Model the fold of this input.
Amino acid sequence: MKSTHLQDLLNLLDGSLSVSGGEAQVTDRRRLGATIHRLAEVSALESGERQGLARYLTRLAALACGIIPSSINDLYMARGRGEIPASFTVPAINLRALSFDAACAVFRAARATDAGAFIFEIARSEMGYTDQRPSEYVTNVLAAAIAEDYEGPVFIQGDHFQLSAKRYASDPEVEVQAVKDLIQESVAAGFYNIDIDTSTLVDISKDSLAEQQALNTRLSAMLTGYVREVEPEGITISVGGEIGEVGGHNSTEPELRAYMEGYNAELQRCAPGAVGLSKISIQTGTSHGGVVLPDGSIKQVSVDFDTLRRLSEIARQEYHMGGAVQHGASTLPEEAFGKFVEAQAVEVHLATNFQNMMFDRLPASLREEMYAYLDEKFAADRKPDMTDEQFYYKTRKNAIGPFKTKLWNMAPEKKAEIGQAWEEQFTRLFLLLGLPGTRQYVEQTIRPVVIQPDPRAYAGAEVVGEDVSDLAD
Done:
């Protein structure tokens, strides 16, 4: 990386940071917090060496500020052993647009509530349509932590690192390698929590549950073994598995046991002694993004909280994991979130409503421009019986990546309005999910390990995006 680029980027920070010997020194913490967004912007909107160096510098700066990408595995394992109360549910928050601003809002909510047990995540599918590779996502999150004067472990997760059933059927080796490559890229960027999702390959045509789950368990175990190969020394990455695709039939106790028995046996075969899962994702009645009605409102769905509680108990008591995970919950009514805590869900995934909040507050001219783009580029996705409200709700996530620059360049007061709305929503959700005071449990169980980033991981060409149209969010 060119020294001229380094000096140019350090100049953007107004003398608040210096770098020597692969480590950063903060000379003015307040000024760094006020200027770090400039590196996040270079990371998001530029390319080549300056982009890579901005990401590398942000990670160095975060470490110098005591902001450490970490695994939540030990907290979940302590919960599985009963050492941590099952009195809160960890939110895993997918940031699709304005990710720096959204992460700032999360950290403000966390500081206001003394919360520590929360996760930032992005799915394989979201990386495609939002144009955010792992290193950019990490940069947004760490830069936000610096901007909001946050310190301590920061949990960043790969959500739905999923195999495409269609591509696996066509060429299984290529599709498995694609997920391995994504794991390696993500770990190098600072993702120390990864949800492996091979549930797309569950075959319900088979007679027994063990046979139905066989491919899911085999590939989940194999990819877990690969995670253990590439994880940094001193870190045990938190790995999650999944029984069945979100939006299908509700999961059952026999399915959970069939998956876990098969997974544990297969992991022992392919990676003897390797650490297994910290949690298990199940289906209890929700769907990703919610179901939109013709008038644009979201259909109310029924969540089977009894199943969620029972499977969480089995996950903890019989398999010593943190518990069960609920997907696709952000569009549920707020009164549902306290029930996740009552059902002792270890984690809940939240995404679409934050995207909805942004679209609702965009300048009308920008929103209309994005919708015109969808009319042109995604016309084939419009079903004959769809209203405009349904079409735009279903497809508008696909405009986020192409309009990333215009979103970044919105008027500061508009971005502040969106950020304030997000902060208020995150604060409400943190309260409902029992997060106030959870920083003590993070401090009790997590021993952050400082991993110095490899500059070579930031010097290469940006990874080319892929077709993610058949993958879950």
About this structure: The mean pLDDT is 92. Residues 209-230 form the longest helix (22 residues). Residues 363-399 form one domain. DSSP finds 20 helices and eleven strands in the chain.
